[in-house]
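Figure S4 source data
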Amino acid sequence: MKRLISLNILLLLFIFNASAQLAKNNPCKFLGNITTSYNWQEYCDVSDCNLTYSDYWNQATCENATKWGSVHKGWGKFDWTNADRTYNYCKQHGIKFKFHALIWGSQHPSWIENLSAQDTKKAIVEWFDEVKRHYPDLEIIDVVNEAIYSGGDYHSPYKQTKIIQALGGQTNGYPNTQSYGWIAECFKMARERWPNAILIYNDYNTFQWQKTEFINLINGLKALNAPIDAAGCQSHDLNDMGGSQFKSALEEIHNKTQMPIYITEYDIAKNDDNQQAQRYKEQFPIMWEADYVAGVTLWGWIYGKTWTSGGNSGIVKNCQDRPAFTWLKQYMQTDAARNAKSPICGSTSSISVNLELSKESVEVGNEIKITATASVRNTKVKNIEIYAGNEQLSNCNSEKCETNYSPNQEGNITIKVVAYDTDGDKSEQTATLIACKAREPFTGTAITIPGVIETENFDKGCPGIASSDSDDKDEGDSNGYRNDNGGVDIVKGNGGYAIGYTEKGEWLEYTINVESAGNYSYNIVASSGSANSGFHLEDGTGKAITSNITVPQIENDWNTYSEIKGNLTTMLKEGEQIIRLVIDGAYCNVDKITLTCTDCTNGVEEVSALYQEKTFDVYSTLGTFIGTITVNHLNEINAALYDLTNHEGAYILRDTVSGKSQIRISKK
């Protein structure tokens, strides 16, 4: 960082905060609060006590009025009355306004709970677009609220809706990188609408019970190149946490995420005045003086009008300052408070850059696209550099830079982008690209069909190309049967190996060689101790060739395997091709798939075209002419033969145009 802040900007910030009494001596940090009643009517000033909000606080958050459920009244219907009351107050008094929150599993419109994933996505887009229309100049936004997964569920009731599915995710929990994808999508949608706003992920229990989950979530979003600017720690969970313990937790979160932190909802819910004051004295200086903390928002200040029990987190009671508030006013006048640094002023760059890879893995010799997009505040983008390892790939003098890259050797490659602004500040972001050799069958030879597909013998190749697992850790017990499994979990089972610990959306591909085209049946050996476990098969184009196959449940028993029989819904063509196994319901073990031909050609030349109208003369195997059939698709022949002959059996068909013949089976 080559500059702290220009004199003009410093003066403007000082003037901007001049009326905010508690933090007026520190132009780089804000000390904010929420509206004064725990209800939908959002007011700032406290008329009962003749208290003026702007005399104390220089940032405001609506406690409820900007939440989706309070604004969105149905398709195309919005009521901003209460939200505007706070927003306009902020504009009139030079106070920062933070929007809380775009997406939350609670306080969403109740009517979206009955929507499909597709319609839920439409409702989300409508909501984002409406907020953008109404508040185009938002500076700070809580984009997603309380989405940590812990103890078998999310922090808020996302599962009552299809919000997660609508945004491309699955309600399968953490930790795995793909589980954060729907949250990343929210941030990308927000960045499109507010390119200069500070985008925050906000959650509670970040300092004690779910600290690790919070860190994993933030880092997961960074790994997915989500445009997240800061981590929001609500800080409701500090009532009985000592200062040293709090300091250790705060530092751990920052050190492991390397993100600016906002203390978004701080309160100490204590009936005892001295106990509340003691917690303030122990904790507040730690957060305020941390140069990576951008600001602190107290979650209410009037006793009886906060969300805690009896409103006991309030620091003004009966219109008199409680000891905690008396101490806070005194502390904010100290040199330590006045000189505290912030990541939004003099501590970090005013430029940020987002890195996006078209693929997370690529075969050696193939290309991926690398896109870097920079955004700035109060300056301009000078240039963007893109690197693969130590090799510079591109240097662009614009806000967006794109280049193609083709790795020439296997391994993990660090892709780095560095963006500079015209003041000399810079921002970096990195991502790991997996380069691997071209996919091939596990044994080097395609699996012969008719035959058996052992599920653990999926093709070798890049994750995302030959297989896709929800994480990169092998949780199985195969003792290293595969060292190239990309996280696919292989277990011992049914006298050999099987795939296990499956999650919805995972898939595996197999290269097969079909010796004879025709209709096939399957016999699949699988087990599950859970309800609703299952999968289906697809061809290489992604078209399903089976319906969803449910694995019989034997409660809490994954060691007893069952046979599941059925027919493919589409005939297989002759030759080498791909079959994909896709998990639809988690926690099934799949051992093997046996494919048997029920109706295949047998040494006589096949019909060349499958999907056009054909007319055949039909003969018995002794050469006696029986009649003529016309079909639109090859798989209609069996039934058409039965309709003609009223018997099951083998017949010779001669194409009336080409004269070519084949043997087919008449089946009812």
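Figure S5 source data
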Amino acid sequence: MVKKFARFIKPYRKEFIIAILCIILECVSEVSLPFLMNVLITNGIHTTDNITYTMDLNYILMIGGVMIAISVFSFFLGVLSAKFSAIACRGFGYEIRKEEYKKIQAYSFRNLDEFRASSLITRLTNDVQILSDTLCMCLRPTLRAPFMMIFSLTFALIISPTLSIVFFVALVFLALIIFTIVFVVKPKFLIIQKLLDNINRVTQESVIAIKTIKAYYKKDFEIEKFNKANEALTKTARKTLSINALAMPAGQLANYGTMIAIIYFGGILYLQPGHAIALEDIQTFLTYVMQLLATIMMLSNVFMAINRSTASFYRINEVLDAKSEIIDNTSSKLKVELGDVEFKNVFFKYKNDADEYVLKNINFSIKNGEFVGIIGQTGSSKSTLISLIDRFYDATQGEILIGGHNIKDYSLYELREGISISFQSPLLFKGTVLDNLKWGNKNATMEEIEKACKIAECYDFIVNQLSDGFNTMISQGGTSVSGGQRQRLCIARAILKNPKILILDDSFSALDKITEAKVKANLKNDLPEMTKIVISQKISAIKDADKIIVLDNGRITNIGTNDELLEKDEIYRDIDSLQKIGGSEDAKN
């Protein structure tokens, strides 16, 4: 798995190499300073007895100058390593985010069903940030540690093998504490990320449904729901980080304990006859051991950071490893030339291990240019059926043909270029009206845009009701315009794509009867060569269709015109009767 993530570092190899070289040279420089200090004291200060001292000023200035130069050099190496590490580590995060977002865009609807939107957002932002921060934090100490340990331990052993035993005891104590903490908190970080997903989900739902919340005055209920999610995250994080924080006092205990032990045992050795160790050697030894323990403390922070990032590591990997069952036939040169659609013995279920099929034995054909309606009660799988045409899902059994070719024989790009959909929940993006319309065709001329808007019956309200016409800013989600206006803009955007097949999924639900009739007439008269598939729960939206497909519980009960279905299909008659009763009541009111 590490190799998989290593590829994200490749674009920044040069920066990583420079950072690594700077860190190594900086480490060598730091290790040399205590040694030079020992040399300076040993050779620069002389004693003829235990009372009288003489100094070799030239020697002291020479060695001192070298130490100052090394310190300045080490400072600049530290600056350079920090700069190039930041470039490389942030680039690493950038590459992961880019790849993850690209992967999500390639997901089938089945993949999107497996991951919550809130979870994907967390994995794309928070989890990537954690990995990037971990790499930044770990790069320097991880590289410094082996060099510091080798050089410092070597010099310490040379100076006093006896005193080195103190260090090894402290090292074992510190290692046991750190690994115990890592073992305990590792699974808790995965729980924290899942709880963060839940916070994002609750927040996302409350923001999206803010109008409903206000309408039902459920403000207190939503606040309580958020507080529960927030409290669960806070409790787990507090407990985990409290355990994690024990590493610092444990390190300090090891540091100060080691210092006291070295001074104590070093003093005993110094007081032995013939001075088993010199005072300057005790000082130098102490410096090296402190460097060693500081390095180990840095490594403990590395372990904690890696421990923290492991959960994010696996969560991101789940996104990158998820396989889409939609296989893109990229080598195909086929283009959608005609809007003929045919379903042959199609069965579908959302999960392969599900017991029941959502769609069962679907068979029908649509000729190029036909206006076809699909109707059924709520839950009859109307939207699922049209999702198969655009390969948002692949049929479990059977085949779907467009223009006489199996839809799997087209590349996804060419297939979806030939099909345009206005979804059940119309969505507009933040930007101008013109920007949103050009989503259908970025190269469209104003003449083409105006024509599409006139067909969708939105030209008049754009020009006469919106403050800046086509340059009016639309809020995110299109909440700055009414539901009916949003639906008509989405229909215009779908038409502007100039597809062979136009699918309108309940796109007339927010339109009044007069506007609905006008849009239908425009579609028939102005787009005669375009196949038009309209999904609706309103008979008024499809009664003029060339043929109507009636769905019930995932099965086709009948296909025919409005008059034919009123005679032979009970479900269609029931829907018609209920809607006529509802229409009569509306007229009375």
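The mean pLDDT is 84. The chain has 20 helices and 14 strands.
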